[in-house]
Fold Olfactory receptor.
Amino acid sequence: MLGNYSSATEFFLLGFPGSEELHYILFATFFFFYSVTIMGNTVIIITIYVNKHLQSPMYFFLGHLSVLEILITSTAVPFMLQGLLLLKTQIISLTACCVQLYLYLSLGSSELALIGVMAVDRYVAVCNPLRYNIIMNSRTCFWMVIVSWVFGFLFQIWPVYATFQLTFCESNLLDHFYCDRGQLLKLSCDDTLFTEFILFLMAVFIIIGSMIPTIISYTYIISTILKIPSASGRRKAFSTCASHFTYVVIGYGSCLFLYVKPKQTQAAEYNRVASLLVSVVTPFLNPVIFTLRNDKFIQAFQHGIKRCCRLLKD
């Protein structure tokens, strides 16, 4: 515990409550999720990069989404796994806590912006197929991705700065497995009401703001699909955006659950569960959602495996 007039220079992360056996079970579970996330998204990136049949805007965006998923989960999960394995409270400095929170929020913001971009890409593919290659040319795709990355990293500068301008004198015990902003605000002895309100408005802006092009795009997509006379044509058109739509529902659902709430200092269990959805479950599902139902990607992956086998035999 800290005195009333001193601010914490380091924090103790309490991680997960429970017995030693529970910690080992959680470690094995989360290590499996993390390993599959890294391997699955890496396979997506390599397959897209080496296969010329996947050199299209949809797969270009998917490759960047996979990079973001790897970075997001790697920001918090390895530190969490270390705490579960060592069975002790972890110490993190104020600077490291600031960097971790900034990277986590910035990468997440970039991902939301990219999801909106992918929705627009699917809209053009379904509603304007004849002009798709003209509208979604390589230059346009490049700048859309750059803007998504830059937006995320610029947008989160003030929220993180404002958070760490507070004085943390209530305690230096963070009841979480990473530097969660809600738990940090809980430790402040300053009046955080105004800061929480601004953070709430900014979370609404980025999440709802990226949802608007997604909702508009899918409104037009669904309308266009319903006008297709044949059932096979409707299935084919919907299959081009089914994976992205599934990811949108899961991704936005977990982010709304975690960030869009007026009171940032929610109960520790609430924040822990929501954070696990964002940092562990969603990145784990990305390879599953975008590959298992994608025949073109599966064919490209199988072709790559065959090429590797032939090279090894030679």
User: Anything to note?
Assistant: The chain is about 75% helix and 5% strand. Residues 1-5 have pLDDT under 50 and may be disordered. The chain has one domain: 10-305.
